[in-house]
Amino acid sequence: ELRVAVRPSGTEPKIKSYIEVRRTCVGGDLDQARAEARQLSEELAELAGKF
Q: What's the pTM?
């Protein structure tokens, strides 16, 4: 699951964005789920940096 929130800053002339990534823990492998979520988050942050 992926959620992106974008809003104007209340005090500065800029836009703030928040990315939330959720992964289901399959087979009880929490470390794998965290690694997948971290990887997706990093890819999204890199993509967002291009704009």
A: 0.58
